[in-house]
Write a structure and sequence with these properties.
The complex is a heterodimer of chains A (453) and B (270).
Chain A: H1 2-16, H2 19-30, E1 61-62, E2 68-69, E3 71-75, H3 102-114, E4 120-124, H4 131-148, E5 154-158, H5 165-174, E6 177-179, H6 187-193, H7 199-222, E7 234-240, H8 247-261, E8 265-270, H9 289-304, H10 309-312, H11 326-333, E9 340-341, H12 347-350, H13 358-367, H14 375-381, H15 385-388, E10 392-393, H16 406-415, H17 425-432, H18 443-452
Parallel strand pairs in A: 3-4, 4-5, 5-6, 6-7, 7-8, 9-10
Antiparallel strand pairs in A: 1-2
Chain B: E1 3-7, H1 12-24, E2 32-35, E3 46-50, H2 55-81, H3 88-102, H4 114-136, E4 139-141, E5 147-151, H5 158-168, E6 174-178, E7 183-187, E8 194-197, H6 211-227, H7 235-241, H8 244-247, H9 251-254
Classes of the chains: A alpha/beta (453), B alpha/beta (270).
């Protein structure tokens, strides 16, 4: 009864709120959700209704934190009956609450989309009353957007764990992508920080969506115009640094999700301290951005470079090297494979050379069919030679006489500064390498310093 | 041997008909260049010829490219020729010439050739800009309900952008206006889009926005502000991902003032 009264109260408060205030509260509440891409499905317009989608996704703007704004990322409501310790919208927090009506969501989406502000809608929600009730609300909004407003753009919807599977199935027929948040990498972490959520409840809708997608693909083989279920696949996200898991555990979880649940993407979200709670770690240095960056690098290695989690990390070495990216790190630990002859090695092995990415590898494979390649050709193709030169030969020769020796190469690779997407590189670098032998300045720079002083 | 420089008009038609002429006049390819503008320094022992564009010749060359090299290569050429690079016409000419002499349908994969790389890079440059502007372009609703977008692209990409937006917004009248070149794409509801220059454009009509326009612009600016995480603030990365020359035309960065319409700054391409 009390809850009902509160809801009635909040609804009446909502009606006085302007759309701008609501948008402020509900986008503020959604900003920590990172799974916000518009990729995965190519759908041409139908000639009358507004909207199409592009497989690669489109970024429409960039926020002050440098993250892309692609979808109108909002919560349907930030009221929540759960009390997850890391979340700004937990029920024990006293924050302004608001809810959209389905019409408001639709109008905002349509008008933003028309002006090319956004690529579509990302709709998530706090839990009101029950997961099923919340999912119903979301379904109603999405249904209206697709059927009444005839919106054909991208829609990404959160599946709420514990909601009626029938509803998730129905939402899946309307949305392009769905995601279920894993929240934390392990079940123990989840138990300690999100007392109302259970690992089992999270994995169940994930499995349901996976099966739905497989079935839908099967139907499409038989009937070309069969309706598509979540055509852009599903994704998930987990918070990094709120619980004590190692990088190895996180990568193993991600690998399992890709393999066993056919996920399109796993997103890693550096933990941002928004609540004061004794169960949460103190992070004096701000969110663990470098760690997040390394995890994304490794994630790419899993998805596009044919690496496996246990090649990159192990029980004995459970965390990524802060100084070197995971691929360089792997190469340095496996010098027995190098140097590789560019004109001969196969594509899969080529992808393992630091400084050669998917695009350059594809270009090399094409170009070497027609002519023998040398270092100038590689440079033209876009290989980062300052990284690759220690690991490759062209026509049996290395670019410069170099030693194939771990310390020597590490020292040289470190002098080529990696471009990190945030200002943490320099600080971490110095503090950590104070007593390390990896960062001894080269002879020439010592000489220079002596001469200048 | 005397070098020949063929100077042609900066358009697909001009460049392709110059290539046709280079073959018709049996030029020695290693000693021939095609340029779209006059050289700043004249060279000795070089003859400079101004070529006349001819639609018929251009069509023949295009047909030949499509037949012998396929559509993908043709699109590479078109995108490369949409740039403002001084070497573009010459690079395309030499790729084509190498492809023909080697009978190599996949000439665009021979990255060990410098001209192939040049065309590839130019094409990628244009393509990146197309990709960016598909997202960064901003429509504003005018008083009469027409959507108007102003862009300042470095390459001539209107014809690449138009199909995307025509497919996306079939029920809208929209105009995309290229600030640097003074040309625009017009898409009337239910009809094909077309290109036009800005001679007949009514400038005063472009400054009257619909009632809702300012409201939505403000809402989106507000949204962009709210969606950033303060703890992760990183203006450098923001600028890297969305360069300032794009931000100049995007309402969420310029505030609520629409960009000023300034005809004097245009580069006239023809």
């Amino acid at each position: 009864m009390q809850i009902e009264n509160e809801i009635i109260k909040s609804v009446s408060v909502n009606q006085e709120m302007s759309i701008k205030e609501k948008l402020g509260i509900l986008s503020d509440a959604a900003k920590y959700d990172v799974a916000c891409t518009s990729s995965g499905v190519d759908r041409k317009g139908n000639g009358t209704d507004m909207g199409n989608t592009v497989a690669g996704g489109i970024c429409h703007s960039f926020a002050a934190d440098g993250r892309c704004i692609s979808l109108l990322k909002i919560l349907f409501t930030n009221e929540c009956i759960y009390d997850c310790k890391y979340c700004l919208n937990r029920c024990s927090n006293d924050v302004p609450r608001a809810s959209f009506t389905p019409d408001e969501v639709c109008e905002l989406t349509m008008e933003f989309y028309r002006r090319n502000y956004i690529e579509g809608l990302f709709l998530s929600s706090g839990i009101i009353q029950s997961p099923t009730y919340t999912m119903e609300q979301i379904y109603e909004a999405i249904l209206k957007l697709r059927k009444v407003y005839h919106f054909m753009g991208y829609i990404h919807v959160k599946a709420i764990p514990g909601a009626d599977p029938m509803l998730i199935q129905r939402v899946g027929m309307l949305a392009d992508r769905m995601s279920v948040n894993l929240e934390l990498p392990t079940a123990e972490g989840l138990k300690s920080l999100a007392p109302n959520k259970h690992r089992k409840n999270i994995l169940a809708p994930m499995r349901q969506i996976q099966n739905g997608i497989t079935e839908s693909r099967h139907d499409l083989v038989l009937y070309r115009n069969a309706p598509k279920f979540v055509p852009a696949g599903q994704s998930t996200q987990m918070i990094i640094g709120a619980t004590p898991e190692s990088d190895y555990q996180i990568m193993a979880v991600a690998e399992n999700l890709y393999r066993k649940f056919d996920l399109k993407r796993v997103f890693y979200s550096a933990f941002v301290h928004v609540n004061e709670d004794k169960a949460l770690p103190a992070l004096p240095g701000g969110p663990p951005l470098l760690r997040e960056h390394r995890l994304y690098q490794a994630d790419w290695l899993l998805r596009f470079y044919g690496f496996q989690a246990d090649e990159l990390l192990s029980e004995e070495k459970p965390n990524f090297n802060i100084l070197l990216d995971p691929k360089c790190d792997w190469a340095l630990r496996h010098l027995e494979f190098f140097p590789m002859e560019i004109n001969r090695i196969d594509y899969q092995m080529m992808l393992r050379i630091p400084g050669i990415g998917v695009k350059s590898a594809q270009k090399i494979v094409k170009a070497r069919r027609m002519a023998k390649l040398d270092f100038t050709d590689l440079k033209r193709i876009g290989v980062v030679l300052k990284r690759a030169l220690y690991f490759i030969t062209c026509n049996g020769r290395m670019m410069y006489p170099t030693k194939i020796e771990e310390d020597y190469i590490t020292r040289n690779l470190l002098s080529v500064k990696e471009r990190l997407p945030f200002d943490v590189g320099t600080v971490t670098y110095k503090q950590l390498s104070l007593f390390d032998d990896v960062n001894i300045p080269s002879q020439s720079s010592v000489m220079e310093r002596v001469l200048t002083h | 041997m005397e070098k020949r420089v063929l100077i042609c008009e900066d358009s697909l038609e001009g460049i392709f008909s110059a290539i046709y002429d280079a073959y018709a006049e049996k030029c020695v390819h290693d000693f021939t260049r095609i340029q779209t503008r006059e050289s700043e320094n004249l060279e000795l022992f070089t003859s400079y010829e101004h070529m006349v564009s001819c639609n018929e010749k251009a069509v023949k060359v295009i047909r030949m490219i499509l037949n012998q090299f396929g559509e993908e290569t043709y699109l590479y050429f078109c995108r490369a020729l949409a740039t403002e690079d001084a070497e573009k016409a010459n690079a395309v000419y030499h790729v084509l010439q190498k492809g023909i002499s080697e009978q190599n349908r996949r000439i665009m994969e021979k990255f060990s050739e410098e001209c192939v790389n040049k065309v590839f890079e130019l094409s990628r440059y244009t393509n990146n800009e197309i990709m960016h502007l598909r997202g960064f372009l901003r429509f504003q609703e005018l008083e009469n309900g027409v959507l108007f977008a102003r862009i300042g692209p470095r390459n001539n990409i209107l014809t690449f952008l138009a199909p995307h937006f025509a497919d996306r917004l079939p029920g809208e009248n929209f105009i995309i206006y290229d600030d640097t070149r003074g040309i625009c794409v017009i898409h009337p509801v239910g009809r094909e889009w077309f290109l036009m220059d800005d001679r007949d454009m009514n400038e005063s009509a472009l400054e009257h926005f619909s009632e809702k326009e300012l409201e939505y612009r403000e809402l989106f600016t507000f949204f962009c502000e709210k969606i950033g995480i303060e703890e992760r603030r990183n203006p450098g990365l923001q600028r890297q991902m969305c360069a300032l020359h794009f931000q100049k035309y995007m309402s969420e960065f310029t505030g609520n003032v629409p960009p000023i319409y300034d005809k004097s700054k245009q580069i006239k391409t023809n």
